[in-house]
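Record 1 of the preview.
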Amino acid sequence: MTDESERDKSEQAAARAVAAGSTATTALAVAAPRSGGKPPRRSRVSKRTKLIVLNCISVVAGIAIWWILALNGFQFPTPPEVVEKAIQLWNAGILQQDILASLGRVLTGFLLGSAAAVPVGFLMGWYTVGRGLFEPWIQFFRTIPPLALLPLVLVLLGIGEVPKVFVIFLAAFLACVISTYQGVVNVDRTLINAARVLGAKDGAIFVRVVVPASTPFILVGMRVGLGSAWATLVAAELLAAPAGLGYRMQQAQLYYDLATIFVSIVVIGILGLVMDRLLLLAETKLTGWQERR
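->
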């Protein structure tokens, strides 16, 4: 009788241990996605708020340094003088005209360059024939700054809008095509092989595996190409442009009008920053599946 009661107690203890172990395993399974997945919403909001505060501090500090330098011997206009000049140019309709002219050239060249770069980059990365045909020319023109081709382009295409848009197109294209190509060749081969084992054809693999995996690289290339487009635009407008922010800077240089030069610089920086933030927002939306730190 005693042996049976002891046996019952042992069985009950073992059952409790198994139940406790099962409960612990379930708790770990539930807790694991929380630790390995996205951070809590409060943590994300706190991080975003911290970044915004740091950005504001950085902007205020930069303006303060600029103001101090302007008041201590550097030939800079003060921030209020730049704001006053911007208001004058705006009231005269000059600033709007320059912004629209420059923004139109940048958007046209950048969008055309990015649209051409993506399929060429995919062809280079996915097909050996495409890589063999395009890569020598891509690498050749990458070593030549687009601005170095501007005199030749002006001779061949004239002094209208086409040569300016073309050099912007070239700058955006070269930046984006290399990034797209790297995105394709860096796709994890395990994913491609797994898709093949499951019976997927090349077309399905390209659309369902390669394109999503390459999207972050494409968007990074577009952001780099956007910066190159703005840099090329300013230099292109220094030659034979009837209007634009670069043209206005050149005209201000002739009369030593530093305030107007600073207005153009600030406007270009703001427009470039806004466009870059829009691309970053698109990257966040399109690559939400990607693990982030």
